[in-house]
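Predict structure. Chain length: 119.
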Amino acid sequence: QVQLVESGGGLVQAGGSLRLSCTASMSTSRILGMGWYRQAPGKQRELVARTFNDDSTNYANSVKGRFTISRDNAKNTVFLQMNSLKPEDTAVYYCNARLGWVAGTVDYWGQGTQVTVSS
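Prediction complete.
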């Protein structure tokens, strides 16, 4: 099992920045990619950004140009740099790791970290 430990959430004013970190508990070549999702109250969980082993990335349209995902493979850690934050970015942010097994892929999730952006 892979455990994901997140940190870096908090309260920030609109226009401010936060950096989220997520570290996997074990080093494994089975990790196909890592990313961040978020869930606001009353809404479904949505993709924010993800990165894959070939260093490709993709972002939700709502965060393009403001958020940057990066990964430190040596430390099994993925980061999300969030700039120019808006109140609508307020949500619980979840780290995700997708692992490949013989039977297929499995998604692992962190416990979530709250990000609150005040207007």
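Summary: Residues 65 and 83 are 9 Å apart (CA to CA).
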